[in-house]
Structure formats: structure tokens, C-alpha cells
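Could someone model iron/sulfur cluster with this protein?
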Amino acid sequence: MGRSLVQIESIVRKKICTVCTSRTAQGDCGLENPSTCALFRFFPQVALAIESVDKDDAQRYVGAIRRNVCSVCPSQDSEGWCETRRQVQCALDAYLLLVADAVQEATGKAFDPKKLRSRGGALSGPGPRTRLSPQIQW
Ligand code: SF4
Ligand code: SF4
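Reply:
Sure, complex below.
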């Protein structure tokens, strides 16, 4: 039985927020509006993008996040430019490999490359709820 998305997000929060430079000394998110943190604002898309990468490779993770998360994030303009990224203020981008590791660990690293290939990558269809793997449950 896989973990729920809420459980996975909770695990990732514990791992990433504790090392994030935006965290305050009190342990809270230091962003003016914490809900704008792209990592958790788009967490379903983030989890699916990471899950879609069938081989540990930094560039593949970057590509999956650019395609599936940055493409729907309001911080990126129509030219693909993101000032938040340039200023290293996007926790998802800054800690991407840690995020990928945390998501994989939370989902049990039970990737099925055949299944991933057959569905043509994350978010290529209607919506995230229709494309979840057995490792992520709603
Ligand atoms: S910016 Fe995001 S990752 Fe960093 S502490 Fe805030 S919620 Fe956590
Ligand atoms: S790098 Fe920029 S566009 Fe991509 S998720 Fe982060 S803030 Fe959004």
C-alpha cells in the first residue's frame, strides 16, 4: 500500500523546510506568503514529475520540473524566464535533488520503468488525479 500524497508531502516538508534558507530561526517559513512556495504550491505536479524520471539523473529531473511545473507556475514568463529561479529563491529549484531524493524515499523508490514509458511521462494527459502510480494515493 502506497503512501498518500498528503503523507508524502509531509515527509518532504520535514526534509526540505529544515534545510531551506528561507526558514526562520523559529522554524517557520520565512516567505512573505508561504503559500507561494512553488515546491508545495504545485506538490502534486512535483511528485508526478519526479516519479516520471526513470533514471537518477539531475538533468532529467530539471527537465521534468521545467516541463510539468515551471510551465504552469506564474513566476515563469512566456519566454521561459524565471526571476525567482535566477535569484535562487525557488526552493523547488534550489533543492531539486534533495526534493527528488525525498519523494523517491517517501514513495519507496518503487519505480516501474515500463509503466512510466507506457504512459508517456507525467502530466501528459488530463490531470494529475488520473495519472497517479500505485506509490502515490489520494
Ligand atoms: S520556502 Fe518552501 S521549502 Fe523553504 S521553508 Fe518555506 S515552505 Fe519550506
Ligand atoms: S523555478 Fe520559477 S517557474 Fe519554476 S517552479 Fe520555481 S518559481 Fe516557478
